[in-house]
Amino acid sequence: MKHRIVVLGAGYAGANAAGRLARRLHRDDFEITLVNGDPEFVERVRMHQLASGQDLPHRPLRDVYAGTGVRVRPARVTAVDVDRKTVDLTSAHGAETLGYDTLVYALGSTVADQGVPGVAEYAYDVAGKQAALRLRARLSELAPGGTVLVAGGGLTGIEAATEIAEAHPDLEVSIAARAGVGDWLSDKARRHLRGVFDRLGITVHEHADITRVEANGVVTGAAGEIPAQVTVWTVGFTVHPIAAATTLEVSDTGRIVVDGTMRSVSHPDVYAVGDAGIAEGAGGQPLRMSCASGIPMAWLAADSLAARLTGREVPETTIGYSVQCISLGRRDGIIQRVTPGDQAMSTVVKGRTAARIKELICAGAAWSISHPTAMLPSRRRHLVATGEVATGEVETRFVAP
Predict the structure, then answer these.
(1) Domains parsed from the chain with CATH numbers
(2) By CB distance 3.0 to 4.6 Å, which of 273, 344, 375, 388 could disulfide with 13?
(3) Residues 346-366: pLDDT tens digits?
């Protein structure tokens, strides 16, 4: 009987894990099933582009994995039982239960309301394709002079505000943050960011602690009310509650606790990658929720799992960062050099050159998923006949962009 590997989620982490496993494991011994709610691969890092009115390429997962041996199952995950090793699914064909021998959990994250009243009722977000399309439709309804407020001064908020302002120059766009907007960046990067905000006419509200979202704006603790016909919520992300409902060991935020190989510390037949897993990176700090973390996590999980199943040495890896890439519309950007522990350094690339670099990185990430067997030589190995796995370790280092 074949060893059944089920990958839940086909975002950057899950899609990369499935493709890498297909290159590592022999089809005669392994069955890889990729479960995803959307039948297409969604470039989540481009959702601000989709929301602003741009069209993105369609990448059907069945076409992506055709000929790789990966079986694609379009379905929504409703529950996981890690003790019985089953996954409950709902699809157009109804409800069913899928069994597994090894699970790769990559269900990602969604928008978090942070306990602020009114977010669910009145705010828009860019955490997924349907959410971005909903915002896109609402923006198209606004008359010239319409007001848009982006809540959140992190990477997602900055990219959403600048993209919307550039694509809709007839709208009044503002951004509000509890602390400073982009305050983790170097001085040089912050100066450039402020220049872009000025050029695009974006109003900045800093130290604005939003306490309530209403139909026509937000209420803050210090700045009073900020009017807006559309509020875009980018204050934070949270994982789906499915993992926390199992017997898996999870963090206080519901992320699956994993070891240095992305394997669950409580259930060795479960791996967690991307936003769904909480792993220690360079400097001993948890990796942040991002594509830059998710892809290296997927590589490491796939390589570690394949090594254990085929009796080879398990890699020992520290995931570190090298840069943070921020798009500021289609013609501007910031490439911030960071330490492996994700702290800003003085080196910055900005302007059109940074925009081109960011585009190359995003396009490369999507290309690697669309060509799952082209990135590395295929060395498909058989399952260890005795069921034993290797315990040796090989020193490796993955550096995330």
Answers:
(1) 3-110+237-319+371-400 (3.50.50.60), 115-233 (3.50.50.60)
(2) 273
(3) 999 999 999 999 999 999 999
CB 246 within 8 A of CB 230: no
Which residues, 6+ apart, have CB-to-CB distance to 325 below 8 Å?
A: 333, 334, 335, 336, 354, 357, 358, 361, 401
C-alpha distances in Å from residue 289, one per residue of 281, 294, 345 = 12, 7, 20
- 139 CB-near residues (< 8 Å, 6+ apart): 51, 52, 53, 148, 164, 168, 171, 230
| Phi, then psi, of 49 in degrees rounded to 5 | -70, -45
* pLDDT in the model for residue 295: 95
Q: What global pTM score does this model have?
A: 0.92
pLDDT lower than 70: segments of the chain: 223, 373-379, 385-401
Residue 199: which residues within 8 A CB-CB, separation 6 or more? none
Q: What tokens appear for 249 in the block?
A: 């060991």
Q: Report pLDDT for 108.
A: 95
Q: Is 365 helix (H, G, I), strand (E, B) or coil?
A: helix
